[in-house]
Amino acid sequence: MSYRSNAAEAWYPEPNSAAAQYDIPLDLLPPSSLTQPLWRSLVGNLRDTFVPIKLPPLQLTSRPVAVGLALGERLRMPWFRTVFTNIGDVLSPETLPPLELESRPVDVGELITDQLSHFWWASLLRNLADRVSPETQPALNLTAKPILDIIPNSWILLPLWSEVVDTPKVFYPDKPRTADAARPVNLQPASLPAEMRQAATAEPTAADLLRDIRRSRIRQRIWVGLAAAQVFYMVLAVLGKI
To answer: What residue ranges do the domains of the chain occupy?
Structure first.
């Protein structure tokens, strides 16, 4: 745990912590190289390139771990060495010790990739077999008690009126607006001929229904044609593989 000073914006270790015992300075501020000007950074990079700092040899205090060929060295290898290495791995592969499993394998059934690699008739036969003679499974043991009266008796579930009433929609004429008190106007409906009155009282949605039925038939023919073309293509593909 450490304490932060708002004045200096630095972190100081707790007196009883391990960092204070070993006198390890903790400075979480960004390095000063982020605030230096561009010309000073450019000069420093040129100095490091032409006159690098000579450091003492690195002394390893731990045993190195053999990780094989590094990725950078593997990418820098010429192509003919990789070809010969691959040929050697094919002709005389490296013998590895047998794998020791410490856990029991779990039977997960057929993998999804194997299921997708089957032909369509195998799936059809499997579905028919499941429909004719389904697999008998043991009874389900419920560990929880069933909940009684999920829907309270005080609730009333009413269907939508559009699902109950099966009648065409009727559009009534708008009611005439009442005249303003300041400007009284006597509005008298004009008498319409008999033909126009019959057209006004006719069902306004008949043309819309006929148009929708015509469009649905056209869409049905298009989808049936696409399905027939797909079945024909699958049959040709199966016959070509045979």
So the answer is: 2-50
